[in-house]
Amino acid sequence: MNTFGHLFRLTSFGESHGRGIGGIIDGCPAGLEIDVELIQQDLSRRRPGQSKITTQRKEPDQVEFLSGIFEGKTQGTPIAFAVWNKDQHSNDYNDLKDVYRPSHADYTYIQKYGTRDHRGGGRSSARETIARVVAGAIAKQILAKAGVHIQAFVSQVGEVQLNKSYLELDLTKTEENIVRCPDPEIAEEMIARIVLAGKEHDTVGGVITAVATGVPAGWGEPVFNKLHADLGFAMLGINAVKGFEYGSGFEGTKLSGSEHNDIFVKTENGIRTKTNNSGGIQGGISNGEDIYFKVAFKPIATLLKEQKTVDRANEETTINPKGRHDPCVLPRAVPIVEAMAALVLVDHYLLNKTNM
Amino acid sequence: MNTFGHLFRLTSFGESHGRGIGGIIDGCPAGLEIDVELIQQDLSRRRPGQSKITTQRKEPDQVEFLSGIFEGKTQGTPIAFAVWNKDQHSNDYNDLKDVYRPSHADYTYIQKYGTRDHRGGGRSSARETIARVVAGAIAKQILAKAGVHIQAFVSQVGEVQLNKSYLELDLTKTEENIVRCPDPEIAEEMIARIVLAGKEHDTVGGVITAVATGVPAGWGEPVFNKLHADLGFAMLGINAVKGFEYGSGFEGTKLSGSEHNDIFVKTENGIRTKTNNSGGIQGGISNGEDIYFKVAFKPIATLLKEQKTVDRANEETTINPKGRHDPCVLPRAVPIVEAMAALVLVDHYLLNKTNM
Amino acid sequence: MNTFGHLFRLTSFGESHGRGIGGIIDGCPAGLEIDVELIQQDLSRRRPGQSKITTQRKEPDQVEFLSGIFEGKTQGTPIAFAVWNKDQHSNDYNDLKDVYRPSHADYTYIQKYGTRDHRGGGRSSARETIARVVAGAIAKQILAKAGVHIQAFVSQVGEVQLNKSYLELDLTKTEENIVRCPDPEIAEEMIARIVLAGKEHDTVGGVITAVATGVPAGWGEPVFNKLHADLGFAMLGINAVKGFEYGSGFEGTKLSGSEHNDIFVKTENGIRTKTNNSGGIQGGISNGEDIYFKVAFKPIATLLKEQKTVDRANEETTINPKGRHDPCVLPRAVPIVEAMAALVLVDHYLLNKTNM
Amino acid sequence: MNTFGHLFRLTSFGESHGRGIGGIIDGCPAGLEIDVELIQQDLSRRRPGQSKITTQRKEPDQVEFLSGIFEGKTQGTPIAFAVWNKDQHSNDYNDLKDVYRPSHADYTYIQKYGTRDHRGGGRSSARETIARVVAGAIAKQILAKAGVHIQAFVSQVGEVQLNKSYLELDLTKTEENIVRCPDPEIAEEMIARIVLAGKEHDTVGGVITAVATGVPAGWGEPVFNKLHADLGFAMLGINAVKGFEYGSGFEGTKLSGSEHNDIFVKTENGIRTKTNNSGGIQGGISNGEDIYFKVAFKPIATLLKEQKTVDRANEETTINPKGRHDPCVLPRAVPIVEAMAALVLVDHYLLNKTNM
After folding, report:
1. Model pLDDT for residues C76-107, shown as the tens digit of each residue
2. Radius of gyration from C-alpha coordinates of chain C
3. How far apart are CA C132 and CA C155, in angstroms?
4. Is the pLDDT of residue A74 over 90?
5. How many C-beta atoms surround the C-beta of residue D267 within 10 A?
6. Contact partners, residue C53, CB within 8 Å, separation at least 6
7. Which chain A positions have a beta carbon within 8 Å of C27's beta carbon?
8. Which residues of B touch A275 (CB under 8 A)?
9. pLDDT tens-digit profile of B74-95?
10. Which parts of the sequence bind FMN (chains A, B, C, D) (predicted)?
11. Which of B121, B336, B352 lies closest to B234 in space, CA to CA?
C-alpha cells in the first residue's frame, strides 16, 4: 500500500519514467508556514549528480505544490505536490523490457501484477523516495517548532566503518563532505571505497546512523505501534534496506542485563538515564533521551557488468548494461532516512496529543 | 495502538495481573476448522516454567474462545478469546509501585499516561504476547493449508553463536532441547550460558532466526508495506526486541553488488535464484524462495540484583528484587516470533487476493 | 468489519447465543474515572423485558471489565469488556437452523460465509449492540466533561408521529414513559400502537430523533469524514435502520435556498445562526449550534405469524414461529442511537485535537 | 480526512481556485484497460455550463493521469490524476474574503483551521467532487466487468416529485433531458422549477435516486461496514447532502413487519425475494436483488440575493453576490452519486474476495 502514517499521512505516487513523482500529505496541521527552500535543500541532498561519487544523471527535482498551501501557509487540507520528470530517455530501457534483472523487482512485480512499467524500474525505482523527502521536509519543520531535530550520517561503506558513538562526533560536519560522514578521515576512506566500486563497475553497501534529539518523553503507542517499531517499519520500507536496529541493537544482545540496564538518575533537567542502551525508547515510548538507530543498505543491484539471468519467456539470457550507474546509494539516502524518521516522529507527536 | 494487521487483524487486551490476556481476531476467513490443540502447543512453548532455564512461575495458559467459532469452525465473524490470569500474587509488586525500574516501561508509561497498573508490568508485561501467540497459531493453520510453514529457532545466546546457515541445520530438531536451538552441541553451550546467568541473578540476550517456506511469489504491498517492512514492524513490536534484519542483513552491507546479486536460473520448478541474499523478498514482494530473518533480543531488564534508580516522587532510591526471574527470554520467544510472522504472512496472503 | 472509529475505536465481538457479547475500546484517554453505574443504566435501557411493550425475554446484562481500568481509572490501554450470555435456550432455534427467515440475515450470511451460527441470529442479532452501548456509555462520560450531552427519543411509531421540533419539547421527560417519547400524550398513542402490534403477533417500525448539545465549533473532518457522514455511517450500522437525515433532512429539499439558509447573527455568546436548518453542521464541521438528526427503523422481521420461505436445501417451506417477540424495537434502540452518536462525537473530539 | 475506501482507496486533493483538483487511487487491481472516454463522459455530466439550468461557468475539466497507467493499463500501482483549474477569476471573491456566507463552510473552516482559502469556497467547494467522479468512473469499469451497473436519476426538485418506483421507469431515458429525470413529463416540470429558481436568483433542492443492478449476494462487512452503511457514509460526504435512505426507507417505518418482510421464493434464477423492501441488502450484506437508495440534497447556499451575516471581525454586515450561480445542483450531482456508489461497491467487491 502507498499510504504511510496514522494521522500525518503521506500517500505517494509515481514511476521513474512516468509524468512525475509526488504525493498527498493529509493530516498536516493548519497554519504552518512552509519554507520551500528547506524542502529543496533536502531534494538536492537526495538527487543524483550532486558529486563525483553519485550517478551523473541530472535530475533537477523541483517541487511544485498543487494544493493545501495558501498564502504560504498550510490550510489543514491535503497538500498535494509533484516533482515532474525530465529527460527520461525511456528508450534506454527497451533492452531490459522483458528481462528479469538480478535482485531487482522485475520478476516479483510481474509475478504479483502480471504487468510492469519497465522503464527505469517504474514504481520500484528509488526515484519514488522523492515523495518521502518532500513530506519529510515538511514534517521536519513541524518537529523543529517542537524542538525535535533529526540528523543522519553514513557510518559504514563496505568494510570501512566509523567505529565511534555519535556522541564522540561533531554531527554538524556531516554535510562538509560528499559522503556525509562526520569524521573527515573516515570520510576520505569511504569516498575512496566508492570510487573504487565505480571503477569496477560495481556497487557497495553500508550503514546509515540517525539521531533524533529533543523528543520529549511520551511518544509511542504500544503494544504494536511502539515508537521503534514504527521507525523500523519506516526504514525497512526504503529501497535496498536490509536491517534496522536501535539503541544497543544486535551488539547489545551479547551484554548481560546488569550491563545493559540504563540506570535512572536525578538531574537538574529532571529524570535522565546514565547510559542510553535503550536508544531513547523504553516499552515502546520515548523517555526523553536521544533516539538513535542504524539502517543497513545492501549494495544496489544495478551493475555495469555482464550477468546471467532469465527473461519473461522463461529463457536464460545475459545482460550487460552500459551507461551510468550509482556505485553507492548511501550518501543520497541520508535525507531519505531523515525524512522517514521525521514522518514517524510527527505522527507520534500528533498521536500523543490524543492520549490525555 | 493495539490492533495489528490490515485484513487479518488482531486487537489485543490485557495486563499481567488483571483479569486475563486476550484479543479479537477480525477478518479471519470463514469455514476454517480450528485445531485448539495446536494453539495450546504454542501457548505451552511460550509459557514460563516449562524448563529449568525459564522462570519457574507457573502459568497454565488455557485459551477460552468467546465468539466467532461455531461447531469447531470459524464463522467469518470476530474471534474473541482470553487466557484468564491465575495466582497473580499482585501484592508481590507493592514495593515497586512507585519506583521506576531501570530499562522497564515504568517511567515512560507514567510520562505518557499519568498512571499505570504497576502489578507485574501491567500492560507492558511480556505476558501480553499470549494474545499474539493465540492469533498466530490460527494464522499458522490458514498458512499451512496454503503450504506455508514457519520455523524459528534460537541462533545466539549472549556470545554463544550458531554460525551456520539454516540450510545446514535440521530444523526439525529445534524442539528437541529446552533452548530451541537445532544444533545439539551449541544448544548445550547456550543452556550452560543461561544457567550461569540465572545463578548470577542476571539475564542474557540473544538472537532468534526464523524461516518461512512455501511462500509463493507475489506477497507484499510496496511501496510502504513491503513484506519485509511488515515483518520488521511485527518483530520490533515484540518486547525486548532491538533489531531486525532479513536475507543478507547487516553483514551483506560489506559485500559488493556483484557478490550480493541473486542470479535467476531456470529450473524444473520454474524460475529460481542461485543464491538467496534477498531473503526471499525482492522489491518488497516475495519471490518464491525461502524467507529468512533474524531478530535481536536484549537481555531482559528484570534482575535479582541491587540497582540504583529514582521513584515517582523524584527521589533517588535502590531496588533489590527477590524471587524468581527469567534469565533468558529467548527460548520462550521462539513461538512469539513465529506467531508474528504468521500474522504478517496471512495478512499478505489475503491482501494479495485483491490485486488482480 | 468489526472495528468502529478512528482514534476512539470499538472492536466488538459476540453472538446472540455464544459465550457473550463484548468488545475492546482502544484509544480511550488515560485517567478517566469510570462510572460503572451509568453504563449499567444504559444497558438497562437497552435490555429486553424492561416493560410490557418489549420482548419479555430476561437478559440481566451485567458488564464485566477485563482490562484497561485500574483502581477505577482508565489507563490509556485497551479496555476489554464482556456481558456474558445466560439462559440462552439455544435449542429453541433448532427448527430454524436450515430455514431462511424473511428479511433476516440468514440467507446473506450463508451466501457470504458459507456457514452461520443460527442460534438467535448469531452475529446478526441486535444483541450485538450491547457492545456499542457499553462503549458509548464510556464515550458519554468523556463528552460530559467537555460539556457535550446527547439525548435521543422516539418521535414516530408506525403512523403515530410527534410533529414537534425538539425545541418545543421537554426532553427531560423522555425517560418518564416506557416508549421514550417526551410528549406524554403522543407517548400513550405510541404505546397503544405497539400493544396492538404485539396482539397481532406483528411488529411496527418508527423513527428516533437525537440531539447533541454543547458541541463546540470545529469538529468534523472533511471531505469524507464530515461530522454528519460519520454520524450517518454510525446510525446506518445499527440493526434495522433504513435511513438517516440531519438538520432539515428530506423535508428541507422542498425549501428554496433563501428559506433554507441559516443567517449568522452576533450575540453575547458569540456568532450564532438565527435558524438551524444546518443541524449544527456546515461543510461537515460543527458550527456550535445543536446537532440533531433522525434515524428510520423498519419494523423488525421477527413475527409470530406463518410465513412462506425457502430453506438451505433450496426447497420452499413455511415457518410459524412461536414464543415471545419484540413488537417494536424503538424504545430499546434509544440508548443505542445515543451510544453510536457518542462514539462518533468523542472520536471527532480527539481528531480535532490534532488539527492545530 | 481525505481518503475514502478500505481496499480501493481514493485520496483527494485540491481547491476550487488552486492549481487543480485531483487524487490518488490506491488498490486498483492491475491489468485493467482504462477507457478514458468514459471518464470524460462522467466529468462532462458533472461540469457546470452543460445546459441552461446549470451555472454558466465554463470548466472543460480534462483529466490528466500522472501515474499508475502504462500502455493503457493499470499497473497495480497508485493512479494519480489531476484536472487542472482554468479561468479561475480568483479576484471575484475578494469581497467575500472576510465574510461568513450563510450556510457555507466559511465560518466552520475558520473555527477549525484558523485559516481558509476563501476563493470560490476553497476546499469546501463542490468542485472537489471532480476527484470522486474520476475515481468512480474507474470503479465503474471494474464493476462493469463483474456485471454491476449503477444508474442514478433526479427524482425530486423542490416540490416536484417523481412518484414512481424505478421499476416503472425506463432508466435509459435519464440522459435524454437536461435534468436527468427518466420521466419526460416530470422532467419538464422539474426544468421549469429550476428555471424559476434561477430567475428568482434563488436555489432549489431535491432528491436523487440510484439503482445498482447485478450485485451478487455476499457483499458487505457487518457489523459496522454494512453495505448500506458504507453507501450512506459515501452519499452523506457529498456536498449539500442532508439525508440518505435505502429500500423502503423512512416511508417503510409506517408499515407493519408482515407487510414489510420480503418473502423468499424459489425461481429458475435461484432464490429471490418477492418484494424488495430490503433494497437488496439484508443484515448489511447484498442479497442479489437490486440495490436502490435515495439521497436528499438541500438547496445550495449560494444565492444572488442580499443576505445579512457576520464577518471575521465579528461585525454584522450584508452580502449581495452578483454574477452567475447554480439554481439547482441535482442534475450535475447525478454522476457524483453514481461515482460514490461505484467506489463503495468496488471496495466491497474486493473485500469480499478475502472472506473465504
Report:
1. 999 999 999 986 666 667 778 899 999 999 99
2. 21
3. 22
4. yes
5. 11
6. C178, C179, C191, C194, C195, C198, C327, C328, C331
7. 354
8. none
9. 999 999 999 999 866 666 677 7
10. 123-125, 239-240, 283, 298-302, 324
11. B336
Contact by Cβ (8 Å): C294, C114: no
pLDDT value of residue D134:
98
The pLDDT value recorded for residue C58 is 64
pLDDT for C168: 97
The residues, any chain, with a CB within 8 Å of residue D340's CB and separated by 6 or more, are D132, D136, D234, D235, D237, D238
Residue A15 has pLDDT above 80, yes or no: yes
Residue with cell 428554496: C256
Our CA angle for B8, B9, B13, nearest 5°, is 150
Dmax (CA) for chain C in angstroms is: 70
CA–CA distance, D269 with D265 (Å, rounded to integer): 10
Residue with cell 462520560: C141
- Distance CA(D65)–CA(D134), nearest Å, equals 10
The single residue listed with the C-alpha cell 433504513 is C242
Record: contact C76-A30, CB cut-off 8 A: no
Residue of B nearest to A5 (CA): B224
Report all structural domains of chain B as residue ranges with CATH numbers, in order of start: 3-352 (3.60.150.10)
Smallest Cβ–Cβ distance between B226 and the set A158, A204, A236 belongs to A236
- Which residues sit opposite A139 in a β-bridge? none
Residues of A in contact with B314 (CB under 8 A): 266, 271
Of A216, A224, A217, A232, the residue nearest A344 (C-alpha): A232
Pick from C19, C27, C75: CB nearest B115: C75
Residue D243 labeled ligand binder: no
When scoring B24, B107, B244, B253 by the number of chain A Cβ atoms within 10 A, the one with the most, hence best to mutate, is B253
CB contact under 8 A, D31 and B7: no
Q: Which regions in chain C score pLDDT beneath 70? A: 55-59, 87-92, 356
Q: Is B69 exposed, middle or buried (0-12, 13-18, 19+ CB in 10 A)?
A: buried
User: How many Å apart are CA C158 and CA C326, to the nearest integer?
Assistant: 14
Burial status of residue D107 (CB atoms within 10 A of its CB: 0-12, 13-18, 19 or more): buried
Alpha helices in B291-353 (DSSP H): 330-352
Q: In the predicted model, what is the mean pLDDT of chain A?
A: 95
